[in-house]
Each structure stands twice: as structure tokens, then as C-alpha cells.
Amino acid sequence: MERVLEILSQRETVSGEEMCCALSMTRAGVWKKIESLRQAGWDIRGEGRRGYRLIPGDRLEPVLWRKDLRTRWAGRGICHYQREVTSTNRIARQMALENAPHGSLCLCESQTEGRGRMGRSWVSLPGTGLWQSVIIRPHLRPDQAPLLTYSAALAMARGVEQAGGPEVRIKWPNDLVAGGMKICGILNEVSADPDRIESVVLGVGLNVYRGAVPGELRGQAASLEDFGAPPLRRRILLCYLACLEEEVDRLEREGMAGLREAYRERSCTLGREVRVIGPESFRGTAEDMDETGALLVRREDGLLIRVLAGDVSVRGVMGYV
To answer: Within this chain, do residues 26 and 106 fall inside the same structural domain, yes or no?
Structure first.
């Protein structure tokens, strides 16, 4: 069936004769395959004498976007797609254990056990967002692995904008924000020994349609649709993968120095008064990040505190941002 979809996705309409030649089968055989795809939920229309026309909508099946992928490694190798999974990070971690190559992608329509940072759950309803994870096997030291969170944040922020979405800012360390509300979260899971990174799974959940945000989170979280007609999810995915490749390659070449200025420009945390919420909570002003990605917060008593992402949450004094 994938071959039929591949042919239909390459042109606006494909004649029955062209389908017969490409598939080496009779018109009756082609018709049966088209009917099977229709029964599976695909919108394929007969255009009179012009042939068949596929109306893909906002579907994510790789056959619809793989031909447009313009990367060396991101999203290539293994692309695992399912309608529903427990979580893309869980599947990707298993893929990594089975030696899936650098850049392999796990993509789904919904997650039953989506997770965020610090063990929080992440609602991932069918067809409402972009839920995916990429396996990275970086040329970095183990202590640099957390910096890949910043690579992913910059990549998705750029990707959303390039695809035609709203302006995106970054709330340290791993949330993307539009209009002062969270639209995306990132989960970085590392497998390493003291001397070498085996793999990093970068999971990114982006709210695209309003249905992605539970009612109780309205006012704190939002979707791209809240800011106008959203881009197609597969368009965002293509832009993100291209940007992720650029950002990871830059991090490998230059370290945090290669990301810091772009991250500063997009930050909605730096320069603001924040609350650091953890074992020792306090208020202060977020001044900068150091070479490890830690946030430097000037406490109200003047002391400069180095804040690590894994230990605390950082919120604006007046709200989420």
C-alpha cells in the first residue's frame, strides 16, 4: 500500500493508466488497492478522466514527507511511525539499544504515557500535536550531553517559524513559549558511561491544535492554532529536522559557545526576575548561562547562584514566563 501512496503523493493527480504501469497491475487491481486505502481512512478522490487525487490533510505518515527531507542524518536511517505508542522516548530508547543509527526518528499520532521533565506527564491526544523523538549519537563529552536540550529548543523554535508559525521564545531550560504561554516541551534522556555517550534521546512535544491543551491548563499552555492557522505538522517536522542537524553539528564543533548567543536572543528568562523552586527556593534575576548551560541567577541579597536544570523549576515572578 505504501507504494500506491508514494505514487499518489508525488503529483496532484495520477491517471489510472500511469498507476497500472507503475504498479504492474490491471485497472481492477489498482482500484482494489485504492479502495483498501479509502477504507483505512485515506481521502483518495476520482478526478474523472484525470485519474486519482490524494488529499493527505495533516497526516504524518513518512511516505508523505520523506521525499522532501533535506538532511544528511536527521530523520534518516530508521523512521519508526505508529498511530499510538506509550511514549516516543521509550520506543526510541529501545531503538537505541538495538543499534539504531544517529538521527533515527520515532514519530506518532498519540502517546498513552507521554512524559515531560522531572517526571511530569504530557498529554498527547491523537492528531493534535507533533510528538517525536530523535536518537543522537554525538561527538561530545558526557558532561556536555545536557546541552543537546538547547540544540533541540533552538531547532524547534526556528523550525516552527520557518514553517510559518508564530514567533517562538525559549523559557530556560527546555520550554518553548508563544504569547507568554507554553507550546512545547523537551525531554533529554542520556545513556552514557563516564568516558563516552552511548546515545541521547531528544523527545519533543509540540502543541499544534487547540485540542492538545487540556482545559485546566488553558492560560498557561497554548497551541500554534491559538495564534492563527497552524502549519502542517509534517512541514514543521521537516523544518525541525533540518534545523536540529544544524544545531547539533554546531554544538559538536563549537560547544556551548556556538549556541549561547542564539539562545540568549530567544530567551524569555534572561534579564527577568524569577522564582527558583527547589530544595532551597529563592527569588532573583536571571543574568546569563555558563558554558555548561547552567542558569546564573543573582539572588536578592546579591549572591550569584548557579542553577542546574535537573534540580529545580524556574518561573517568572508574575506568572509562568
So the answer is: no
Same domain, 39 and 98: no
DSSP, residue by residue, 8-48: HHTSS-B-HHHHHHHHTS-HHHHHHHHHHHHHTT-EEEE-G
Per-residue pLDDT of the chain (321 residues; tens, 9 = 90+): 789 899 889 888 898 888 889 889 898 988 899 999 999 899 999 877 788 999 999 999 999 999 999 999 999 989 999 999 999 999 999 999 999 999 999 999 999 986 655 455 667 789 999 999 999 999 999 999 999 999 999 999 999 999 999 999 999 988 999 999 999 999 999 999 989 999 999 999 999 999 989 877 787 899 999 999 999 999 999 999 999 999 999 999 999 999 999 999 999 999 999 988 888 889 999 999 999 999 999 999 999 999 987 666 777 655 666
CA atoms in the 13 A half-sphere facing the CB of 243 = 22
Domain housing 23: 2-55
> Does residue 221 share a domain with residue 76?
yes
